[in-house]
C-alpha cells in the first residue's frame, strides 16, 4: 500500500487482510454509512478464545493522512509475523534529508510477544473513521487542510459544512453548560457550524462517523483504546476536559452540581476525578510506549531526540470536550459501564519540525513515523495482553 493511501486503497487493504488471513482476521461493516454514503469497515484480529477487547482507530481528522496507513501496515506485519511464528521486524530507516544522515536501526518485537498479542486480544481496528473528509482532503491542494467530516450545511444554507468528529462524542459535549465563562473561552470547541476546525455538531453523537466509534466501543466492550492523530509527538491520556485529581469523586462530569463552575484549566477550583490506580495505569503504559520508541531509535542522540513523545494528560495540549478517547474512558464511569476498567489514549504522531511535515508527513519521512507508531502500539498491545 503506497502512502498516502486513498479511501479506496484502505477499503481494499482491509478486504485483502481478511481474505489473506481468514482464520485470524474478520472484516465487519460499521453500522452507519458516512454522510456521502460511503460504507466504512473495520477488521478484528483474534487468534484465541475470549480475548480482551481492544480498539484502535485513525483517520478521524481528514487532513491527517498518516494514521490510517500506519495502522494497516501494523496489521500486515503483525499477521505475517504471527503466521510465520517469527519476530515482528520494524525495518531500519536513514533520514537523508539535507544536512542530516540519521540512522534509526532495525527493531524487533519477539515472536512470543506477537503470539501473546494475537492470542490474548480481540483487536479491532477502524483505520479510517472519516472517509468523506479524507477523500475531500486528497482531492485538491486547496482542500488539503480540511479537518472535519462532510455533513451538509443546515437548512437552506449552502456554506459551512462539516463537524469536528473529535468534539462530537457524548462527554461534556454541551461545553457552555459544562464550564464557567473562563472555561468556555479556553476550551477548544465551537457551536458555530462555520468554524472550520472545532464545530461540535448539532447534538452529541449526531454524526454517523462518531456513532460508529461509539457503537464499536460499546458493542465490543473495549477495555483498551488508542485513537491515532497527527501531530505533536504526544501520548495523551484522560482527561482532556479538565485537570486530573484523585481525591474527590464528586468532582465528575456526571455531577450537574458543577455545571457552569468547571474551569477547564490546571490549578483551578475544579478537577476531574480519575482514580489513582487508573491514573497510574495510564502513566505506566504510556511510559512503556514512550520507552519503546526511544529504544527503537538506537544510540544516536539526534534520533532519540526526534523520537521523544511526551506522556501527559490531554489537558496539556489544550482543554477539549467530546473527544473519542475521553469518551471511551468515561464509559467505565456511566450507569451501564462497558468494562470495569478502560485505558484510553490519543496518540499524536509526527511533528511539524525536523522536516516531518506535520499533518501530512512527506513520503521520505513517513517510514520514520510509521516505525515509531508500530513500536509504540506493540508496547501498548503487549501491555493490554497482560
Ligand atoms: Zn486529529
Descriptive account of the structure:
- The chain is of the alpha/beta class and 386 residues long.
- The protein has a single domain (7-385), classed as Zn peptidases (Aminopeptidase), CATH 3.40.630.
- It is built from 11 helices and 14 strands.
- The protein has helices spanning 7-20, 66-84, 111-120, 131-139, 175-178, 181-186, 208-220, 276-296, 301-305, 324-330, 366-385, and strands at 25-29, 41-45, 52-58, 88-90, 93-95, 102-104, 107-109, 121-126, 224-230, 234-237, 244-245, 272-273, 310-313, 343-349.
- Strands 1-2-8-3-9-14-10-13 form an 8-stranded mixed β-sheet, with helices on both faces.
- α2 packs across α11 and α3 (111-120) packs across α11.
- The longest helix is centred in the last third of the chain and has 21 residues, at 276-296.
- The protein starts with 6 loop residues before the first helix and ends with a helix.
- The structure holds zinc ion.
- Zinc ion binds at residues 60-61, 64, 229.
Order of helices and strands: HEEEHEEEEHEHHHHEEEEHHEHEH
CATH architecture: 3-Layer(aba) Sandwich
**How large a portion of the residues is in β-strands, by DSSP E?**
15-25%
Shape descriptor reads globular
How far the N terminus sits from the C terminus, by CA atoms, comes to 31 Å
- The counted number of beta strands is 14
Low-pLDDT residue intervals, each spanning 5 or more residues: none
- For CATH, the homologous superfamily is named as Zn peptidases
Bound molecules: zinc ion
**Overall pLDDT score:** 97
Helix amount, in percent? 25-40%
Tally of separate domains: 1
Quaternary organisation: single chain
In the sheet with the most strands, the strands line up as 1-2-8-3-9-14-10-13
Number of helices: 11
- CATH-derived topology: Aminopeptidase
Rg over CA atoms, rounded to whole Å, is 20 Å
What kind of sheet is the major sheet? 8 strands, mixed
- Going by helix content, strand content and strand pairing, the class is alpha/beta
**Can you tell me the CATH class?**
Alpha Beta
Amino acid at each position: 500500500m503506497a502512502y498516502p493511501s486513498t479511501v479506496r486503497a484502505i477499503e481494499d487493504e482491509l478486504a485483502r487482510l481478511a481474505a489473506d488471513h481468514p482464520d485470524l482476521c474478520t472484516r465487519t461493516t460499521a453500522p452507519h454509512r458516512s454522510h456521502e454514503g460511503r460504507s466504512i469497515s473495520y477488521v478484528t484480529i483474534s487468534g484465541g478464545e475470549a480475548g480482551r477487547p481492544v480498539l484502535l482507530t485513525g483517520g478521524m481528522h481528514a487532513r491527517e493522512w498518516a494514521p490510517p496507513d500506519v495502522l494497516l501496515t501494523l496489521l500486515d506485519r503483525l499477521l505475517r509475523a504471527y503466521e510465520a511464528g517469527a519476530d515482528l521486524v520494524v525495518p531500519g530507516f536513514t533520514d537523508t534529508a539535507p544536512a542530516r544522515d540519521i540512522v534509526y536501526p532495525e527493531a524487533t518485537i519477539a515472536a512470543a510477544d506477537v503470539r501473546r498479542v494475537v492470542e490474548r486480544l480481540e483487536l479491532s481496528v477502524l483505520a479510517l473513521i472519516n472517509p468523506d473528509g479524507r477523500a475531500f482532503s486528497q482531492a485538491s491542494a486547496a482542500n488539503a487542510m480540511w479537518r472535519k467530516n462532510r455533513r451538509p450545511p443546515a437548512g437552506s444554507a449552502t456554506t459551512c459544512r462539516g463537524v469536528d468528529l473529535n468534539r462530537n462524542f457524548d462527554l461534556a459535549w454541551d461545553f457552555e453548560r459544562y464550564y464557567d465563562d473562563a472555561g468556555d473561552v479556553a476550551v477548544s470547541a465551537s457551536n458555530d457550524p462555520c468554524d472550520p476546525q472545532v464545530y461540535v455538531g448539532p447534538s452529541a453523537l449526531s454524526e454517523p462517523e462518531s456513532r460508529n466509534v461509539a457503537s464499536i466501543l460499546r458493542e465490543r466492550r473495549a477495555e483498551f483504546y488508542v485513537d491515532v492523530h497527527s501531530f505533536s509527538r504526544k501520548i495523551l491520556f484522560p482527561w482532556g476536559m479538565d485537570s486530573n485529581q484523585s481525591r474527590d469523586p464528586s468532582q465528575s462530569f456526571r455531577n450537574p452540581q458543577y455545571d457552569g463552575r468547571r474551569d477547564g484549566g490546571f490549578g483551578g477550583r475544579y478537577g476531574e476525578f480519575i482514580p489513582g490506580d487508573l491514573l497510574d495505569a495510564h502513566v505506566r503504559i504510556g511510559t512503556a510506549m514512550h520507552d519503546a520508541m526511544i529504544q527503537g531509535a538506537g544510540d544516536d542522540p539526534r534520533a532519540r531526540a526526534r523520537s521523544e513523545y511526551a506522556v501527559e494528560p490531554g489537558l496539556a495540549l489544550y482543554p477539549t470536550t467530546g473527544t473519542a478517547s475521553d469518551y471511551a474512558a468515561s464509559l467505565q464511569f456511566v450507569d451501564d459501564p462497558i468494562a470495569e476498567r478502560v485505558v484510553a489514549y490519543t496518540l499524536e504522531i509526527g511533528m511539524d519540525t525536523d522536516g516531518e511535515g506535520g499533518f501530512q508527513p512527506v513520503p521520505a519521512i513517513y517510514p520514520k513515523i510509521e516505525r515509531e507508531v508500530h513500536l509504540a502500539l506493540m508496547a501498548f498491545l503487549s501491555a493490554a495482553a497482560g
